[in-house]
Amino acid sequence: MTTAPIRPAAAPPSVGTARTRVEGRDKVTGAARYAAEIPFTGLAHGWLVLSTVARGRIRAVDADPVLGMPGVLAVLHHGNAPRLTTDYVGLLGIPDPTAAVFQHDRIPHAGWPVALVVAETPEQAREAADTLAVHYDEEPHDIAFAAGRPDAYPADGHMPAVTEKGDVEARLAASAVVVDAEYTTPEEHHNPMEPHAATARWDGGRLEVVDSNQGTTWVQSELANLFALDPSAVRVRSEHVGGGFGSKGIRAHQVAAAMAASVLRRPVRVVLTRRQMFSLAGHRSPTVQRVRLGADADGRLRALEHRALSRTSTVYEFVEPSAGPARVMYDADAHRTANELVRLDVPSPTWMRAPGEAPGSFALESALDELAEKCGLDPIELRLRNEPERGPVSGLPFAGRNLAACFREGARRFGWAERDPRPGVRRDGRWLLGTGTAAASFPAGAGPSTAALTAEPDGTFTVRIAAADIGTGARTALTLVAADALETVPERVRVHIGDSAFGPAWIAGGSMGTRSWSWAVTQAARELRERLALTGEIPPEGITVRSDTTEAIGALAQKERHSFGAQFAEVAVDVTTGEVRVRRMLGIFAAGRIVNPLTARNQLIGGMTWGISMALHEEAVRDRATGGPYGADLAGYHVAAHADVPRIEADWVEDGDPEDPVGIKGVGEVGIVGAAAAVANAVWHATGVRHRHLPIRPDRVLAAGAPRA
Ligand code: MOS
């Protein structure tokens, strides 16, 4: 037995030092097992059958022929599946029956789960699922998303639908310079490398699920709701997750697996295929956004209006709140923002990296660039002239708004001072060259979490928290945070995550994971150190301290808390082929305390890469005839590949809030914000043509014609 070790006097703090992932070796050697790889005795395999029609009723499921096929154990559908409680409310307090499968005969969209075929092997299940005949009474469907639909309505989602102050019309009429433009973004899909996968097993009245998700206690509580269980009767584990981006919450596969496991009384695994993910994983709604800006001749905003229309299913009211960023970024005497929604026969959209901010910043930051052009002002100068003192809508002070510092540092490193503002005048052979910039912001929130820290008798520490590492490096970040908080070295800290048995914790979402979990770990560490100071010896079972940050988070002063960033892009455009290449990108961010520079940079570059993808490649197209997606795979749905991302750098400036006990703001999402606008603004600078519709496809560049300088 020993007393608690402390960090060697000379050892520097761990937070702020670049560390490779603590589980990195396990991942690259294959020792780390993902949800679909974890062995279970007596495992059966379920395969989801998705509807081929976009609206109507299921008339019959012809299960008998399939039940005679080799290895087939069961066919679950609305006629025989266990009943669920569907009147519960989801994460936002809005009923979300998206994952409540097999409860009725209604088909709300193409790709709705209509049956689960379970067999001894995945191959048998798949073959039987392909054979299963489902008969429908088809009804006409409507997937026509466009501005001006009479059935569009203001909808809240996770923020109020409408904010309004002053008289926008009057201020616009009195403005020396006006921008009034419509921008659109297409339906986009998260495509994490690891498909969604879950295995469910019942033990008496207890449900155990091995899953790939962004929050084990989140999925635990949703499953408890659906199956009318006490949360303590549900355990969800999710040790390694190959990407989530907002798509890995409660979905059809976990629910279907739990149902089948209860019927068959053996473990059942359901894995989504890449193709099924296009219907079942959620997606980002397309948007139509109108931005109207009125300014004095010197660029000072007098009127700002941002109205954003998005689309959801008939199942669940999800809002892509693209008008949100305008509530934080820019003030004006008259200021109006609105998120509107139309409900169509499509799958339920969901959170997808920077929901609202990603498409919203494309429209808003493009409009700012158009205003700079009209005012004859440098786009950075325009933004600096419009830096608000307080939250434009909330009136609250900012807890650190270091946007100007990002622009200054970015401009210096990017070489912005040498930029000739005229569009369409730079050539490199067949290429027209241009540079563009845009601002980024993302909320820095925190969610209540609990953690347990144990001082072990051998001088090491064990941290248990139901955090999720979805590829971000969260496990490593928490190791560094815990090491500093315990005044020890990372080598003496073991962090266990991804298990709902560890107690409630915030999800890996909203860029709030590391901030929320670090708070809980730090709080527990403080108490543990106090306990150790009073304890001579550590007993064999160790000394364990638990924390709960609910109170501390509630006591935090109300402020506008955000990370910020300045995005820069250089593009080359060949107007005779329509090809756009990004030559380099630089993002400078103010994101609070950076825990691990290596993985933080990785997150930011990942977000920026997605911004390139959003600007130039990503577009899901729905077939008006079937209502389903065209090319629901990574051949049909284009994403940026290595060759599309030649030189990309992310860095940060000093940022922090002395009042904040954690100081971390989160880097998961801010990297994508503004990135597409920076690319689009660079395309304008190269060609003199504004592209207000994403992606900037070759045919759109061709149709726009030669430079108009
Ligand atoms: Mo993110 S869209 O909050 O997982």
Question: Would you kindly provide a written description of the structure presented here, covering whatever features stand out?
Answer:
The protein has 709 residues and is α+β, with helices and mostly antiparallel strands. Among the domains are: 24-32 and 446-553, Aldehyde oxidase/xanthine dehydrogenase, molybdopterin binding domain (Aldehyde Oxidoreductase, domain 4); 398-444 and 561-709, 2-Layer Sandwich (Aldehyde Oxidoreductase, domain 4). 25% of the residues lie in helices and 24% in strands. It contains 17 helices and 25 strands. β20 (461-464), α12 (474-485) and β21 form a beta-alpha-beta unit. α9 (357-375) runs parallel beside α16 (675-687), α12 packs parallel to α13 (513-533) and α15 packs across α16 (675-687). It binds dioxothiomolybdenum(VI) ion (MOS).
Task: Give a quick set of tags describing it.
single chain; alpha+beta; Aldehyde Oxidoreductase, domain 4; seven-stranded mixed β-sheet; 25 strands; globular; binds dioxothiomolybdenum(VI) ion
